[in-house]
Amino acid sequence: MSSTLEHTIEYRPDFAMVKVQLQPGQQIFAEPSAMAAMDTSIALKAGLKGGLKATLGRAFGGESLIINTFTAGQAPGEVLFAAGQPGDARHYELTGGSLYLQRGAFMAHGEGVEVTGSWQGAKGFFSGEGLVLLKASGAGDLFFNSYGAIIELKVSDEVIVDTGYIVAFEDTLQYNVTILPGLRAGGKLKTLFFGGEGLVCRFAGQGKVWIQTRYIHPFLAFVHPFRRVKSKN
Amino acid sequence: MKHQILARPAATIVRLLLEQGESVTCQVGAMIAMSTGFEVETTTRKKGGGGGIVKGLKRMLAGENLFINHFSATGDKQNITIGPGMMGDVIHHRMTGGTLYIQGSSWLASDTGIDIDASWQGLGKAIFSGESMFWVKCSGEGDLFLNSYGAIYAVEVKDQYTVDTGHIVAFEDSLQFQIGKAGKSLIGSFLGGEGLVCKFKGQGTLYCQSHNPPSLGKMLGPKLKPR
């Protein structure tokens, strides 16, 4: 039973909140602490999901081992989800293909979808965002979130995205992590070291990429100097 | 160069569309995504122009980076998406020959024809204005993009206008400001938490931000683990 979930996303793009209407017996699976409110007709069960491999894969992909399952009982009911950080959320319907998600971008999925880690080899390492991406596949609903607004880019040729801003992309796209183009060995290496646009992801093919308009590191770098200094004694 | 500002005011970004031969100068790290037909160059000066390391160092004192990035379109219909690091707004300002003074770190991008320098604001203002010691000084003609922490609003100053220290984003050089006390008595001003304010005089455009980053930092700092 992989009927599409009835849902709305409100308060976009700064404080996105996903509202899902579950029919009796319908289920949705969400990352821990994503649930903000729910009707009493909904039963919550925490647990590992998808077996050992999928579970560990998710953990390497920067998500929790635990997935919460929400099931509507005799009566239909509503569940509300929101991320910890202010930001946007999007719905994506999987129809047999796969969607890759950046660390921490997974929010919830419906029946018929599996989310696991996907080892990206050396290119994952160079992206500076962790070795493993999350991979959602199957047929059904998927919700993902960001810090900042989410912008959809349709790739029909090639597009370059700073690695820190990638939220999700379709598996129909090929990608490789590179330093900003225009740079050649022995050439203008300055752009890499001083230009701040170090590593970028180059997507090619036909498909969609979702980017976030902010990422958290500049904010953390701003806050850091305001922390008290530990006394030496 | 065409532009489109999206996701205002908290997560704002700008999408620029450039034709072959057009170029734009951006703050280091501002690039989020772009098409592949750009040549990227990192320098300390205006594209193809003078200034060099001295202007770069001055810009650094004003709270910007020593280096700036130039993106030049090598084909038609090339697009680039840029945004600031912190949550906040971005606005477009069309420059028509005058000079705009910009608070350090609020300059996001400008036409390559615009000169980017820094200017000392004087010791008294430097200490009391709650801004950095230097202002980024932009002059020339073309499009300019400013960013803030919080939302940005424009004020057409006709006579006088008062802004709390730390809330200035930019102002035209037809305006001058002085540091003064917010209330009639100095003690009253400080007890009211307003302390000193910037009093603008003249005629011109002033851009203010709804929030101010140092206030956020002072609020968060003591709640975090010591470093």
CATH topology of chain B: Double-stranded beta-helix
Helix content, binned percent of chain A: 10-25%
CATH class (first level) name of chain B = Alpha Beta
User: Which of globular, elongated, flat, extended, rod-shaped describes the shape of chain A?
Assistant: globular
CATH-assigned homologous superfamily of chain B: Mitochondrial biogenesis AIM24
Q: Approximately how much beta-strand content do the residues of chain B carry?
A: over 45%
On the 0-100 scale, what is the average pLDDT of chain A? 84
Helix and strand run of chain B? EEEEEHEEEEEHEEEEEHEEH
This entry's quaternary arrangement is heterodimer
Largest sheet of chain A: 10 strands, antiparallel
CATH architecture group name of chain B:
4-Layer Sandwich
Largest interface, per-chain counts?
A-B, 46 and 40 residues
Task: Report how far apart the termini of chain B are.
Answer: 45 Å
* Overall strand count of chain A: 17
Radius of gyration of chain A: 19 Å
Strand content of chain A: over 45%
Structural class category of chain A = mainly beta
Mean pLDDT of chain B: 86
- Outline type of chain B: globular
Give the uncertain stretches of chain B in residue-range form: none
Fold and architecture overview:
The complex is a heterodimer of chains A (233) and B (227). Chain A is mostly beta strands and 233 residues long. Chain A has helices at 51-60, 121-126, 190-193, 216-223, and strands spanning 6-10, 17-22, 27-30, 35-38, 42-48, 66-72, 77-81, 89-101, 106-110, 113-119, 132-145, 150-155, 158-162, 166-170, 173-179, 199-205, 207-212. Chain A is 12% helix and 48% strand. Chain B has a single domain (2-220), classed as Mitochondrial biogenesis AIM24 (Double-stranded beta-helix), CATH 3.60.160.10. Chain B has four helices and 17 strands. Chain B has helices at 52-61, 123-128, 186-191, 213-220; strands at 2-6, 13-18, 23-27, 31-34, 38-43, 68-73, 78-82, 90-102, 107-111, 115-120, 134-147, 152-157, 160-164, 168-172, 175-181, 196-202, 204-209. In chain B, strands 3, 5, 6, 8, 9, 10, 11, 12, 14 and 17 form a ten-stranded antiparallel β-sheet that branches. In chain B, strands 1-2-7-4 form a four-stranded antiparallel β-sheet, with no helix packed on it. A three-stranded antiparallel β-sheet of chain B has the order 13-16-15. At the A-B interface, strand 13 and helix 4 of A face strand 4, strand 5 and helix 4 of B.
